[in-house]
Amino acid sequence: MNSQHLNMPARANQQTYDLFAPSALANSYPLFKRMREDDPVHYSESFGYWILTRYRDVEAALRDERLSSDRTALFLNQLGSLDVNLIQNFLHLISKMLVEKDPPDHTQLRKLANQGFTTRAVESWRSIIQNTTDQLLDNVQNHGCMNVVSDLSVPLPTLVLTKIFGVPETDRANFIEWAMDIGRFFGSPSSENIEEFALHADKAAAQFSALIRQLIEQRRRQPGTDMISMLTVAYSEQGFNLEELPSQCILILNAGLLTTTDLISNAVNALLHHPEQLQKLQQNPTLINCAVEEIIRFDTSVPFFFRIAKQDLTIGGKDIPKGSVIALGLGAANHDPAKFDSPDVFDITRSPNEHLGFGSGIHFCLGAVLARMELTICLTTLLRRLPNLRFDPDKQAIPTKHSTAIFKGFDSLPVKF
Ligand code: HEM
User: Fold this and answer.
1) What total of structural domains would you count in the chain?
2) Phi and psi angles of residue 41, each rounded to the nearest 5 degrees, phi first
3) What pTM was computed for the model?
4) Is residue 407 within 6 Å of ligand 1 at its C-beta?
């Protein structure tokens, strides 16, 4: 998912709750527990944000109409003195993304975007995911070892999304590179070379939009079953401006790449750390759906999401002024003992499991069905084809040091089989 809406200044000053401490990067749940117990509605001076860590507060905030998803002002603030005229292509592209909208705009755009995720479309993705997973495992099957990140969790969602979008093979590398350039700038705009960074993102936005427009033209003449064809039909039928379609495409791409990459690595890590649960799943593969939900609860790839207070409000007895930025701790909420029995226990048979990994309410993850399908097929295939999967004892797993606390995953996860 695009991360701007969750942007936190990189490793700010030393603070009571250091989300970027090496111990927190390796395992953030003890820190979340401390925050939830000591100060569940915490104002972080150094970040300038409120942080919620209780399930009930996070769930209520996700559904609270007094909180806005429009984080554009936050993004623009981070640009400092940069001349925004330099990044008009970029600003135009991000301006219509539905994740940044409140009703009624959100309601309309979400209805359109749903047309890219129809049951028929979703079913057609199953074979794409299965074939892609098999091809990636074919590449490593005889090696006896692999890096889950570079060999599987990065290429799988990348290939799946380019195929779902029907991007011609010759354009795929550019398509992903431009999407990543746009996502990086949107996620973390401040940098020493902000002008260079911004111009790069603006060029990527222009090239990305041009390619989508070209694909729209093709699909209008020759509609297929890919996402661009379906969205083109939906926009045309509802009388919406097709010029706005690239915005939804960049959102869907950025929302679906890193989130899934990180989730696959978190899943393998959780299973290998709990051999008895891994064995249970291997002995009874029908537990996979339940296991996937538990993986998302236990170690989500999106531990935080942001909202802005549209008016003065009170949460958990704390007065929060209008305009405040509020970080909703989805990962912390998923480990709240008030909601989950033994929340730190990884139990692939846990039921019920009402985790907040995909959010809740009107912004509930549009790609949840795809994410679940990718994880289900990927893990089932992995465990069937590499039944002896284990950590590589000679190489270290490296958690990602994201510049924001929004995402959680791995840079490297070496395994043997
Ligand atoms: C794999 C793990 C994923 C996780 C953990 C995840 C998590 C989330 C969360 C927490 C939200 C709620 C945002 C909010 O409340 O404002 C969200 C929204 C969204 N997600 Fe995902 N997501 C994942 C995968 C995907 C995929 C694969 C796609 C698409 C290909 C996708 C597309 C979206 C979109 C478009 C939204 C915005 C929906 C809206 O604003 O109405 N996500 N996601």
Assistant:
1) 1
2) -120, 90
3) 0.94
4) no
